[in-house]
C-alpha cells in the first residue's frame, strides 16, 4: 500500500488526504462545467462544492464518533475515521443552505451534482484503498485478493479490495448518470443517483466485515435500502408531478448568481 505519497520538509503527505483534496478539485471542476451548461455561474458551483465538502467532513466525523461512542477516546478525532453517509447528510444540508441563499432551484442543482458527486466518491475510495484504512472486505481466494500489511488497519491475509469495487462502481454510475441527464429531468437524475449508489452499497456490504444490526443486514445496507426507496420516490414524483419550467433569473443571467462574499452561517 501507499499510505504516504511523499513528504515536504519532513511533513508526510498522506494518500488518504490527497485523494480527498483531488476529489474536491475534480468534483468542483465537473460541477462548474455542469453549471455553465445550464446557465449558472461556475464560481458558484465551486463555492457549493467547497462548503459541501467542508461540512461533509464534519458530518462524516460526527457520524463516526456517534457510531463508536461506546469506545470513545480522543484518538477518534484523528485524521482517519469518517462515515460516508454522515458526510452525505451534512453535505446535503450545506447544499440546501447555499441554493436557498442564492435563490437557485434545489432540484436542478441536485441533478447537476449527481454525476460529479459520484466521480468524487470514486476518487475518495481509491484514497481509502491506498491508505489501507480498514474498509476492505472478507478474506478471499480470488486472484485479485490483496493483503494490507502496511495499511492504517493492517491485515496479512488476502481480502476483497472493496474500496476498488466501490470506486469502479462509482465511476460506472457517473457514466450512467451523464447519459440519463440527456433524457431525464434533474430531479429524476438525482433520484437515479440515490438508487444506483444505494444498490452499489448493498452489493459492496456483502463482502465487507461489518456487524449485522437487523434482518441480517448491516447499518450501511439499511441506509442503502432507504436511499433506493427515496430515489425511487423522487423519480415517481418527477414522473407524475413534473416541476414547472425554471424561470430563475440566474439561468438567464449567470452574473446574478455570483456568490455572496460572506461565508455560510455568518
From TrEMBL:
Tell me which EC number(s) this protein carries.
2.5.1.145
This protein's membrane topology, according to the annotation, is: Multi-pass membrane protein
Pathway info: Protein modification; lipoprotein biosynthesis (diacylglyceryl transfer)
Residue ranges crossing the lipid bilayer per the database entry: 6-32, 44-66, 72-97, 109-132, 162-180, 187-204, 220-236
Name the GO cellular-component terms: plasma membrane
Question: What are the subcellular locations of this protein?
Answer: Cell membrane
Annotated binding of a 1,2-diacyl-sn-glycero-3-phospho-(1'-sn-glycerol), by residue: 125
Please classify the protein's predominant subcellular localization into one broad category: membrane
UniProt-recorded Gene Ontology molecular function terms: phosphatidylglycerol-prolipoprotein diacylglyceryl transferase activity
Q: Which family does it belong to?
A: Belongs to the Lgt family.
What species is given as this protein's source? Answer: Tessaracoccus lapidicaptus
Sorted alphabetically, which keywords does the UniProt record give? Cell membrane, Membrane, Transferase, Transmembrane, Transmembrane helix
Q: Tell me yes or no: is Cell membrane among this UniProt entry's keywords.
A: yes
Q: Which domain of life is it from?
A: Bacteria
A Pfam family in this protein? LGT
Report the protein name in the record: Phosphatidylglycerol--prolipoprotein diacylglyceryl transferase
Amino acid at each position: 500500500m501507499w499510505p504516504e505519497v511523499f513528504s515536504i520538509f519532513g511533513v508526510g503527505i498522506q494518500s488518504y488526504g490527497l485523494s480527498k483534496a483531488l476529489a474536491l478539485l475534480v468534483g468542483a471542476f465537473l460541477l462548474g462545467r455542469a453549471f455553465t451548461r445550464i446557465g449558472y455561474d461556475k464560481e458558484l458551483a465551486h463555492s457549493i462544492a467547497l462548503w459541501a465538502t467542508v461540512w461533509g467532513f464534519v458530518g462524516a466525523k460526527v457520524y463516526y464518533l456517534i457510531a463508536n461512542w461506546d469506545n470513545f477516546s480522543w484518538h477518534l478525532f484523528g485524521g482517519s475515521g469518517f462515515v460516508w453517509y454522515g458526510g452525505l447528510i451534512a453535505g446535503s444540508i450545506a447544499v440546501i443552505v447555499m441554493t436557498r441563499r442564492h435563490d437557485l432551484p434545489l432540484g436542478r442543482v441536485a441533478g447537476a451534482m449527481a454525476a460529479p458527486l459520484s466521480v468524487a466518491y470514486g476518487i475518495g475510495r481509491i484514497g481509502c484503498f491506498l491508505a489501507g484504512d480498514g474498509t476492505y472486505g472478507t478474506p478471499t481466494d480470488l486472484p485479485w485478493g490483496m493483503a494490507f500489511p502496511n495499511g492504517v488497519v493492517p491485515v496479512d491475509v488476502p481480502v476483497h479490495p472493496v474500496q476498488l469495487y466501490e470506486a469502479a462502481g462509482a465511476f460506472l454510475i457517473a457514466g450512467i448518470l451523464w447519459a440519463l441527464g440527456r433524457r431525464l429531468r434533474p430531479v429524476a437524475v438525482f433520484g437515479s443517483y440515490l438508487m444506483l449508489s444505494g444498490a452499489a452499497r448493498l452489493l459492496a456490504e456483502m463482502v465487507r466485515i461489518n456487524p449485522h444490526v437487523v434482518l441480517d443486514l448491516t447499518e450501511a445496507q439499511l441506509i442503502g435500502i432507504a436511499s433506493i426507496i427515496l430515489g425511487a420516490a423522487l423519480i415517481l414524483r418527477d414522473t407524475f408531478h413534473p416541476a414547472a419550467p425554471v424561470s430563475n433569473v440566474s439561468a438567464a443571467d449567470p452574473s446574478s448568481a455570483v456568490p455572496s462574499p460572506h461565508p455560510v452561517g455568518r
